[in-house]
């Protein structure tokens, strides 16, 4: 009986160590994958994002990742949920979802709210030094939207309205 218990203890220890190894490896792989999918290079891998990438790399925000502005940064769960939904939507649109893939994707209302909150999150300390001015409907991006992507991004020849894509179909 004692040998059986020792054997069981060794098996549990081995299974536990393997589980810890798999957990650490999975966490590291997930962390690296999330970091890689935040990069402008990853986002520009679809031709739809070429203009966004080019104008972004020439902007004062070029040192940021795309998701510093385009995904919620209040907590990990909301960021990952938003990122997954947007990623699935973009994959759908670029594969089977559209006969006429746009040259530029315009931010939908949910994205605009996220972008606006991230403008405020980063620039809030300096907003105290700004002389008060009337905020137009549409918030920061209604006047300052050309800062991260340049004016070319916001006035292309072929403009497409936002598309809300339901990937659950």
Automatic annotation (TrEMBL):
NapC/NirT cytochrome c N-terminal domain residues are: 11-150
InterPro entries with a match to the protein in the record: Cytochrome_c-type_ET, Multihaem_cyt_sf, NapC/NirT_cyt_c_N, NapC/NirT_cytc_sf
What is its subcellular localisation? Cell membrane
- GO CC annotations, alphabetized: plasma membrane
UniProt keyword Metal-binding, yes or no: yes
Q: Which UniProt keywords apply?
A: Cell membrane, Electron transport, Heme, Iron, Membrane, Metal-binding, Transmembrane, Transmembrane helix, Transport
**One function term, GO molecular function aspect:** electron transfer activity
BP-aspect Gene Ontology terms? anaerobic respiration
Q: Which domain of life is it from?
A: Bacteria
Q: Which Pfam families match?
A: Cytochrom_NNT
Which family is it part of?
A: Belongs to the NapC/NirT/NrfH family.
Q: What is this protein called?
A: Cytochrome c nitrite reductase small subunit
What organism, scientifically named, is this protein from?
A: Texcoconibacillus texcoconensis
């Amino acid at each position: 009986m004692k040998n059986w218990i020792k054997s069981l203890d060794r098996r549990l220890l081995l299974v536990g160590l393997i589980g810890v190894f798999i957990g650490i490896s999975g966490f590291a792989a997930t962390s690296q994958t999330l970091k890689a999918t935040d990069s402008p290079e990853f986002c520009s891998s679809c031709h739809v994002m070429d203009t966004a990438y080019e104008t972004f790399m020439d902007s004062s925000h070029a040192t940021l990742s795309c998701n510093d502005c385009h995904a919620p940064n209040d907590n990990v769960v909301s960021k990952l949920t938003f990122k997954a939904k947007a990623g699935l939507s973009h994959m759908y649109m670029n594969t089977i979802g559209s006969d006429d893939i746009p040259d530029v994707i315009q931010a939908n209302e949910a994205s605009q709210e996220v972008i606006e909150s991230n403008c405020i999150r980063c620039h809030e300390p300096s907003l105290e030094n700004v002389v008060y001015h009337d905020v137009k409907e549409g918030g920061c991006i209604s006047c300052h939207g050309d800062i991260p992507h340049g004016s070319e991004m916001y006035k292309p020849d072929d403009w497409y309205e936002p598309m809300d894509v339901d990937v659950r179909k």
